[in-house]
Design a protein that fits this description.
Blueprint: E1 3-7, H1 10-30, E2 35-39, H2 46-53, H3 57-60, E3 66-70, E4 72-74, H4 84-91, H5 112-127, E5 134-137, E6 162-170, E7 173-180, H6 182-185, E8 190-195, H7 201-209, E9 228-234, H8 241-244
Parallel strand pairs: 1-9, 2-3, 2-5, 5-8, 8-9
Antiparallel strand pairs: 4-7, 6-7
Helix pairs in contact: 1-2
The site of 6-phosphogluconic acid (6PG) has 16 residues, from strand 4.
């Protein structure tokens, strides 16, 4: 049974996600460990990042034990308007006292394959066979998540934690992408899927209640092995759900 939570609007989705991050980070850091958060790209998480950078969250979070990673990156320099790092940095990372060594960005400015290998090795050294505490993901209108686009090889990746590929039809046109892979995403203790807006409604219903077809609907590969998957939707994105059940 999917854990689907519906909120009145995108601000309420962001607040609920911020509360989960705050509570999980507090539990983790109380036992002297680092809390690990995988950030998503796209525009949806911006509100959440801005919330975490403001009060009360900023004062309540133990930033010295907070580590951030990225779920995917567009292959552009970190100050490029398309960079997922730039969005997260502007909205959150540059505004809170994170340790620079705890910000693990994907190097979109170097050779994509090299950047993916480097990132995968870093993840292996950091997590071994485990995974992060919380992974944030979004969903595109076509059912892609992170840079797992329909009918592309990373959907079927079983070994590597991170890969690079050239995408013919991405949200930024034909472009190289670096993405974490299903085996790594599925080692997360918690995955929060933040999906807002009416344009996502038909796909949300299809992904949740239609037949399983991850090549066409890549977000369906996100099924944490022993973790929790939470869909966090606003009313417009959830509009087709009751009709589908
Ligand atoms: C990316 C993203 C991507 C995103 C979805 C949803 O780098 O493009 O990681 O998977 O999460 O496309 O994007 P929006 O939040 O902008 O709808």
């Amino acid at each position: 049974m999917a854990d689907i939570r519906v909120f009145p609007d995108s601000s309420a989705v962001a607040r609920a996600a911020a509360d989960i991050i705050l509570a999980t980070a507090a539990r983790r850091t109380a036992s002297g460990e680092n809390f690990s958060l995988v950030l998503s790209g796209g525009s949806t998480p911006k509100l959440l990042y801005q919330l975490l950078a403001g009060e009360p969250y900023r004062a309540l979070i133990n930033w010295s034990r907070f580590e951030v990673f990225f779920g995917d990156e567009r292959c552009v320099p970190p100050d490029h308007a398309d960079s997922n790092f730039k969005m997260a940095n502007d909205a959150l990372l540059s505004r809170v006292p994170l340790k620079p060594a705890h910000v693990h960005r994907m190097r979109g400015e170097i050779d994509p394959t090299e950047a993916a290998i480097e990132y995968g090795q870093m993840l292996k050294a950091r997590f071994g066979d485990g995974g992060p505490d919380i992974t944030l993901l979004g969903m595109g209108d076509d059912g892609h998540t992170a840079s797992l686009f329909p009918n592309t090889p990373p959907i079927s990746e079983t070994h590597h934690r991170c890969v690079a590929h050239y995408v013919e039809k991405s949200t930024t046109g034909k472009s190289w992408r670096i993405t974490l892979t299903p085996p790594f995403f599925n080692r997360s203790a918690q995955v929060l899927l933040l999906v807002t807006g009416a344009s996502k409604a038909p796909r949300v219903a299809e992904v949740l209640y239609g037949p399983s077809d991850p090549q066409r609907l890549p977000i369906q590969v996100i099924q944490p092995a022993s973790g929790q998957l939470i869909w966090m939707l606003d009313h417009p994105a959830a509009a087709n759900l009751s009709a589908a059940t």
